[in-house]
């Protein structure tokens, strides 16, 4: 028997649930093309702002054995660059799913402007609104401000009719899972993506008695093994609370087939890989696919639907 990783997501069909996490290997058209040619089931662009941004001073990403710390500061080539890419991709590949398009405006008005531009365009793919960038000095993460999140979503859905998901930061308290669920359930969202990096961690080099990244005195978003339990908790918490029309993308700590299996068991439909994709490059998707299939074959699962969300209690 050979397990199938086939995944249905928002009425589209994907060969497998794996994607890059926005921000990793998706800043330039060259990197995006490499993802398109990889074994990833889908892929997403770097979060775009209206204008190109250089981001924070380097060093701004540091890899450690158990994960990563970053304070990139939203470097990106600007909204129109990614819009041209996705439209061109659609034209050249009418039989493939278009890339997901991630946007991260620096204000309510900018988010509305970017989404209006997508609404008025020929883009027919999925849009992800990043409400959780932890690294722009002086700008708190939007989705930790519940009122602001509700205000943005209210204004967005006055005009936005295309498929939309939101990228959330991790939450750490049942009260916050509940408040956020009450807000998200009021809107025709297609999915939530849990989680962005755990914001404002601090990794230090004790030999040099120093921080390891330059921006924000060394504070940055944490990814990799460090964050997997938090990511699984957020996937599970939202899967068990949200209206079932709102799917979950699981992101955080996926570096093996087993990590992927765990995210699926908690209820994720698609899976995004950040830190480990940065370390290994796009060939990681071949390995993840083989490892996940192996686990499913050993357990006797022919499809992901047979176990998705079916985490047992004790
Ligand atoms: O660019 C970044 O610093 C960044 C972003 Br926008 C994000 O959403 N998550 C992250 O860890 N880094």
Automatic annotation (TrEMBL):
Q: Name one GO biological process term.
A: 'de novo' pyrimidine nucleobase biosynthetic process
* Main subcellular location of this protein, as a coarse class: cytoplasm
> Which co-factors does it depend on?
FMN
Q: Which reaction does it catalyse?
A: (S)-dihydroorotate + fumarate = orotate + succinate
EC number assigned by the record: 1.3.98.1
Oxidoreductase as a keyword? yes
Q: Which residues form the Dihydroorotate dehydrogenase catalytic domain?
A: 5-296
Q: What GO terms are given for molecular function?
A: dihydroorotate dehydrogenase (fumarate) activity
Q: Briefly, what is this protein's role?
A: Catalyzes the conversion of dihydroorotate to orotate with fumarate as the electron acceptor.
What is said about its interaction partners and assembly? Homodimer.
The family this protein is said to belong to:
Belongs to the dihydroorotate dehydrogenase family. Type 1 subfamily.
Q: Report the protein name in the record.
A: Dihydroorotate dehydrogenase (fumarate)
Q: Which organism is it from?
A: Zygotorulaspora mrakii (Zygosaccharomyces mrakii)
